[in-house]
Amino acid sequence: MDTPSTNGLTRSCGSLTITVRYDGVEDVHQIGRRPRWSYQLDDASDAAREPVHGADLYLSPVAPNDAFEALRLLLSLLTAAGEAYDHAMRSPGSESENLSLFPAWVPEAASLNSDELTMLALELEPPEDEPDPELAYALQHETDTLEEAPWPPARWWDVVFLQGDEGHEVVDLIEEQGVDAAIEHLAQWDYAEETRNTALFHGHIYTDLPTNGGDHTASSGPYTLVWHPGLGHVNLLREFTPADEKPAWWPDRTARLSPVVPANVDPEPPARRAVDRGPGGLAL
User: Fold this and answer.
1) What is the pLDDT along the chain (284 residues), one digit of tens a residue?
2) How many C-beta neighbours within 10 Å does residue 185 have?
3) Distances, alpha carbon 92 to alpha carbons 182, 230, 273, in Å
4) ∠ CA 221-238-109 to the nearest 5 degrees?
């Protein structure tokens, strides 16, 4: 087995600090001998978060046995966990095996640092014969691009997304009382700036309506309702307006300045809230 060219590597990625270290060769059941790498994940955005350790990165025998290859593998797993966390936030009650790739706070942190994970993965791509000048420029000016992000950043933001029994109940309401009654019902979970900022925080904003085949759409006032009568998917969105004030932390989501539920809001409304409580009281 080749000796790794780099025994360890630490890289910063948004609020995350990622470290990989070579742990030798291991006989893996039904796989054979593989180089094993350990890792450590730290999150600077929350001092209460303990570092997460793992020792289960096994490289392919035909891949370079070095820290850059181990880091590329770890980044792909973190990206998958972050995407699973995003899906779980948009689809309450859904399950994804990728959420269990990492313990504790890691899937949420991977979601919040998704852009930075992507940029680091691109930076670590094996070089070709000629360097890509456009990619080098994008990496060099990533911070400037974030600072110049347009406002408002899209046309709509998520208020609430329901599926399953809850979604079918709203579909029944549409059939019995009409679209306006359904929009009025779902709008009770619109906590204005709090809900809008939470949508911004998790990237649940859209330039084009998030529709699929068989979806119906209707608008009333600032709201647009998207629903599928057969599948029971119901999504209420609200339009950005010129009067919407940009949050102080936008577009740096890793600042973690997510809004909180006002004290006078009933924490247990009559149906599922669009905003659930996450670790540390963070509005998700």
Assistant:
1) 344 566 888 999 999 999 999 888 887 765 667 888 999 999 999 889 999 999 888 887 767 888 888 999 999 999 999 988 888 888 777 777 788 889 889 999 999 999 999 898 888 876 554 444 444 444 444 444 444 568 888 899 999 999 888 999 999 999 999 999 999 999 999 999 989 988 887 778 889 998 888 899 999 999 999 999 888 889 999 999 888 888 887 776 654 433 333 333 343 333 333 333 233 333 33
2) 17
3) 19, 18, 10
4) 170
Contacts of residue 176, Cβ cutoff 8 Å, sequence gap at least 6: none
DSSP 97: G
Measured N-to-C along each axis, helices 114-123 and 133-140 cross at an angle, to the nearest 10 degrees, of: 140
Q: Per the structure block, which two tokens stand in for 137?
A: 């420029």
Give residues with Cβ within 8 angstroms of 140, minimum separation 6: none
Does residue 81 contact residue 41 with C-beta atoms inside 8 Å?
no
The structure tokens listed for 278 are 């996450």
Cβ-contact 51, 42 below 8 angstroms: yes
| Alpha-carbon span 93 to 25, nearest angstrom | 40
Structure-token pair, residue 61:
């025998």
Give the amino acid at 63.
A
Name 254's Cβ contacts closer than 8 Å, sequence gap at least 6.
14, 15, 45, 112, 113, 116
Q: How far apart (Å, rounded) are the C-alpha atoms in residues 281 and 38? A: 31
DSSP bridge pairs for 207:
none
